[in-house]
Write a structure and sequence with these properties.
The complex is a heterodimer of chains A (216) and B (301).
Chain A (H helix, E strand, L loop, with lengths): L1 H5 L1 H34 L3 H16 L2 H11 L9 H27 L2 H9 L4 H16 L1 H23 L3 H11 L4 H30 L4
Chain B lengths: L12 H31 L5 H8 L6 H39 L2 H16 L2 H14 L6 H27 L2 H9 L4 H31 L11 H12 L2 H31 L8 H10 L4 H6 L3
Helix pairs in contact in B: 2-3, 3-6, 3-8, 3-9, 4-6, 5-6, 6-8, 7-8, 8-10, 8-11, 9-10
The chains are: A mainly alpha (216), B mainly alpha (301).
Chain lengths: 216, 301
């Protein structure tokens, strides 16, 4: 317990850094995921296959490989940046495919009759999407979206593990390796940090979920 | 994707023309981007023989040693993935049973173990398994640490998948088994679990994909799996872009194969007459799903 109290500053800093990584990554992953989902349900075959390829690649390739590729590969062709941004952008690109699949499963959960009814009262493709399909799809995609977001938060530890520094994972590494503290109390602190992030978000999103759920 | 085609009607001639036009426009943009990337790579000298030779040219002196080295890493990756998924399956089944059969006075404990393990990043779990266990005097190989870390995390995920499967079974299955006089343990073992496994097979293979991806976290405790070996090779070949690209391709091929297998299993699960995909266990479960009575007969009840 002393370990956590003595190093509380470090833990708090690490926690904020983790929040920062997650926030920026989410800021990138959500719009990109929406674009990908739009491409995957669009009537244009080329866009569908483009979206499909993106999702397949990022769902089968470990995040670690994506991050290594970005941080060590890209500088070779003159794209330089800090580990923080490489890591965060890599995490965003990777998570976008999960956001996309969450949305797509939501769209697929909308009964076909809804789209048919929208068309038969004369709504255009975009308007039927905006007014009828998406409001329902977004609601039913909340549970998988919650998973995608929580997955992103947990994956931010990989970004930290690979050398961004100062996030919760890095705190764990510094305290156990550099300062030689016993691993168990440090572990408790770091776990508490992640749970403090994952559990409330999961709880809030599932509250929203029950609020907006469509009873069919 | 035909599953989303309910969003729009079948296109007429004008719509088809527009779609073709859009396809051509986006394809042109994509080709342009690819061309720019290629140009950039060429300018930076990333397409040179020196960079790609060891990876693609068999007459390059480094080709043989590099691929033997990487193949060793791939074998290590696959060994860990196989061990981890088997252990996770056992651990997960145990956890699912513990949660389902638990009495209220200790259920909170089982539930919180599952929730906590699910809530922490797997990389952290691996890292701390490798740090905490030696501290309490359990020194094992890095491979074992990696397997333990992966087992703990994926085990609880599988436990939740299985629990979902058990809950999704029709209530009549349990009631029928109980009315035949099966004990609650035998009800689970003979009637409920096999069906849950059968139903969850695609999700379980999906978890195998996750495990294969997560083995790459072995780099954090210096276990020499594929990615770590690639990292080592880069130190002497200094071609990170090319090597990580090839490694990504290897992972994608493996996981794409597993994804296709999942899809096939999912389709098979939908079709009653399809050839049984899941091997012996699958075949047994299939017979049991529509008709639990032969099982009771086998028990001579």
């Amino acid at each position: 317990m002393d370990v956590i109290v003595d190093n509380f500053d470090l833990f708090a800093q690490g926690w904020l850094r983790t929040v920062q990584i997650c926030f920026y990554a989410l800021l990138g992953a959500l719009p990109l995921g929406i674009l990908l989902a739009a491409a995957r349900v669009s009537p244009v075959p080329f866009l569908r296959s483009l979206g499909g390829t993106w999702v397949t690649i990022f769902m089968s390739c470990p995040l670690t490989v994506v991050l290594f590729f970005m941080a060590f590969g890209l500088p070779e062709i003159g794209i330089k940046g800090s580990y923080f941004w490489f890591g965060t952008i890599g995490l965003a690109l990777y998570s976008a495919s999960f956001v996309c699949e969450a949305l797509r499963s939501g769209i697929n959960a909308v009964p076909a009759g809804q789209a048919e009814a929208a068309r038969s009262i004369g709504l255009s493709f975009m308007r039927s999407l905006n007014l009828v399909i998406l409001p329902q799809a977004l609601r039913s995609s909340l549970p998988p979206m919650t998973n995608a977001i929580i997955y992103l938060i947990k994956n931010s530890a990989i970004v930290g593990a690979f050398g961004v520094g100062q996030d919760l994972f890095a705190v764990a590494d510094t305290l156990t390796a550099a300062r030689g503290l016993s691993a168990l109390p440090v572990l408790t602190g770091v776990i508490a940090g992640y749970l403090l992030l994952v559990l409330p978000i999961g709880r809030i999103l599932s509250l929203i979920e029950t609020k907006v759920a469509i009873l069919r | 994707m035909s599953s989303s085609s309910f969003l729009y009607d079948a296109l007429g001639p004008r719509g088809n023309r527009r779609v073709r036009w859009y396809s051509a426009a986006f394809a042109a943009v994509a080709l342009g981007v690819l061309y720019l990337i290629g140009q950039k790579l060429a300018v930076e000298g990333q397409l040179s023989e020196e960079k790609w030779g060891p990876l693609v040219n068999p007459s390059n002196p480094n080709f043989g040693p590099l691929w033997t080295f990487l193949a060793g890493g791939l074998v290590n990756t696959l060994i860990v993935a196989a061990l981890a998924i088997v252990c996770a399956l056992l651990f997960g089944t145990a956890m699912a049973l513990a949660r389902v059969t638990s009495r209220p006075w200790y259920r909170w404990f089982v539930v919180s173990v599952i929730e906590v393990l699910r809530g922490i990043p797997v990389v952290l779990l691996i890292f701390f398994v490798a740090r905490v266990l030696p501290e309490v005097g359990i020194g094992l190989s890095t491979m074992t640490f990696l397997v333990i870390g992966l087992t703990l995390y994926n085990g609880v995920v599988i436990a939740e998948i299985l629990r979902g499967g058990l809950q999704a079974l029709p209530r009549g299955q349990k009631e029928a088994a109980q009315s035949l006089g099966l004990s609650s343990w035998n009800t689970l073992r003979l009637v409920l679990l096999p069906q849950a496994f059968r139903m969850m097979l695609p999700a379980l293979i999906g978890q195998l994909i996750v495990v294969v991806k997560e083995t790459s976290l072995g780099f954090i405790i210096s276990y020499e799996e594929l990615l770590r070996r690639g990292q080592i090779a880069i130190q002497s070949l200094s071609n990170p872009l090319q090597l990580f690209f090839i490694i990504a391709v290897i992972y994608i091929i493996i996981n794409l194969g597993l994804t296709l297998l999942t899809r096939k299993l999912e389709r098979g699960a939908g079709k009653k007459t399809a050839k049984t995909p899941g091997g012996r266990q699958g075949a047994k479960a299939r017979r049991r799903v529509p008709d639990p009575i032969p099982e009771a007969r086998a028990l001579q009840l």
